[in-house]
Give the backbone structure.
Amino acid sequence: MKTHGVKTHGVNKRVGILALQGDFEAHAQALARAGAEPVLVRTAAGMETVDGLIIPGGESTTMLKLLELMDLKEALRRFAARRPVFGTCAGAILLAAEVRNPAQECFALLDLTVERNAYGRQIASSIAQLEPAAAFEQRAGAGTLEAVFIRAPIIRRTGPEVHVLAEYKGNPVLVEQGRHVVATFHPELTQDSRVHELFLAKISPETI
């Protein structure tokens, strides 16, 4: 399997992974491959030491409970107001503006409507080869993008300021709005570092 990404955007950047629940270790390894310094974040003080933050896959309702328990909700909102955040799978649900099936609290960092358990509760996992949008390839590199879907949510609506960077079966699966990025798949489970590179490129001196 080829390793994509030029590993330049991550130089001298400390990127946090919310390490309350989910596949945070895989994201740490992906960030290291992309040239960044991964930092596992479990406190508000720890959040203030990083330049960007990843909210990994896992179980979104459990993450919400842990964020409440650890008194991290307001810290996350303050962080996202000035620094980039990247949500994958469950993280995508938390960053949306509206969640369905069932409705739940979310942080509205991107103008999205996301449906939980959209493929059915019994789905195992699947791997797809995506043809990313030209805007993605221009910034992160050309070529198909391997996407690992594990009980993935579906993005049902995107607002006018949301840019779709990849689709699967007609649904957006990789999107951005301003400094923030969302993927409904798990880029950390492949050796392709381009999605993480795309996020790292959003971390600039103005956002640090």
